[in-house]
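Q: What residues go here?
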């Protein structure tokens, strides 16, 4: 195990959680966007995005065997940003420029409450990893003081 392994693991988690916060912020910012992208000549509302994580450079079997040996992992990596396939919400707003013939507007499938929970979870995880990095840095500094 490398001396700086815990810092590398926490660093990968910081990067992944930062991306998760950016995606949740983007979802909140586009919660009312009815023209997210054009599909076959028609405007489609913004579709909620989600981040997928995976352990860095390993499959489940190798992680399990390393955990049995007591070896630490190598961190986490964000593999992709996926679209949420939940259906769009229909809202009755006949005066809206994107309303259909019946007066309904397709709104994004973004739930601001769900995004805030995801944002708070990512923030807490980010803070926990910063705490781990600071603790590791403090231990290394104390180890250097012993050598003086």
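A:
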């Amino acid at each position: 195990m490398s001396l700086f392994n815990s810092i590398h693991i926490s660093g990968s988690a910081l990067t992944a959680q930062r991306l998760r916060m950016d995606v949740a912020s983007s979802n909140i910012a586009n919660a009312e966007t009815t023209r997210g992208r054009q599909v076959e000549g028609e405007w489609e509302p913004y579709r909620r995005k989600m981040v997928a994580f995976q352990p860095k450079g390993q499959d489940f079997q190798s992680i399990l065997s390393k955990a049995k040996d007591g070896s630490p992992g190598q961190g986490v990596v964000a593999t992709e940003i996926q679209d949420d396939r939940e259906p769009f919400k229909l809202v009755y707003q006949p005066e809206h420029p994107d309303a259909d013939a019946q007066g309904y507007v397709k709104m994004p499938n973004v739930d601001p409450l769900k995004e805030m929970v995801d944002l708070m979870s990512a923030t807490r995880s980010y803070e926990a990893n910063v705490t781990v990095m600071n603790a590791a840095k403090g231990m290394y500094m104390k180890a250097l003081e012993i050598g003086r």
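A: Context that may help when evaluating the design: The longest strand covers residues 76-83. Residues 112-146 form the longest helix (35 residues).
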